[in-house]
Specification:
It is a multi-pass membrane protein. The chain is mainly alpha-helical. The protein is built from nine helices and no strands.
Length: 202
């Protein structure tokens, strides 16, 4: 039985994993090498015949952060919103949607970067897409804070552009849309299971 105040297991685990990866990179002085070898490069996925490594990087890039501000902002959003989303849809769906939203955000960012902006050789790192997916889950489940956090992210991107800080806005948007859309789909599937004849006329 889940007690009030019990930390959400998957959310807490994700926060710890991201922190450990970041600390390891700093302590071992391999942060740049980790980013280079495990960050996602869009052009390597869309313009290469050897995409196996790029597919792996889609996953690994979700757990890499560039600096304190980067990881702090992302993990604060995850810790703040993750518990609600995890409890709302359950642990298996939560981790599944987290990863799929991360993929969705990275791929959407990659499409924009490679085919529109022409900067597909830039490395994408960070949990922004996956965490934006969590915001999308929360929004779909009726928690308006999900939209508030998306607005904060948009503001953060705007400030970053002024300060010449590279922020993957498309990854945020793609992740949020993926989380929101898939959660709404799951809600509809569940609704149809409970009321299989509701949409049929008598």
């Amino acid at each position: 039985m889940l007690k009030i105040g019990t930390p959400p297991l998957i959310t807490t685990t994700l926060v710890i994993i991201n922190i450990l990866v970041f600390i390891y990179g700093i302590i071992s002085n391999t942060q740049n090498a980790i980013i280079s070898h495990y960050g996602f490069v869009p052009n390597e996925l869309f313009h290469s015949r050897y995409i196996g490594d790029s597919i792996l990087r889609l996953f690994t890039s979700m757990f890499i952060h560039a600096g304190i501000a980067h990881i702090a902002f992302n993990l604060f959003a995850l810790a703040y919103m993750g518990g609600f989303a995890e409890r709302s849809i359950g642990k298996p769906k939560f981790i599944g949607l987290y990863l799929v939203a991360g993929l969705g955000g990275a791929i959407f960012h990659g499409i924009i970067s490679s085919y529109i902006l022409g900067n597909g050789d830039s490395v994408l790192i960070g949990a922004s897409g996956a965490i934006s997916g969590i915001l999308g889950i929360s929004a779909a489940m009726g928690d308006i804070r999900g939209y508030y956090w998306l607005a904060i992210q948009v503001l953060y991107v705007f400030i970053g552009s002024i300060a010449s800080i590279s922020i993957a806005f498309a990854a945020h948007v793609g992740g949020f849309a993926t989380g929101l859309g898939l959660t709404k789909m799951l809600i509809e599937i569940e609704r149809r299971k409970r009321n299989p004849y509701k949409n049929f006329a008598n």
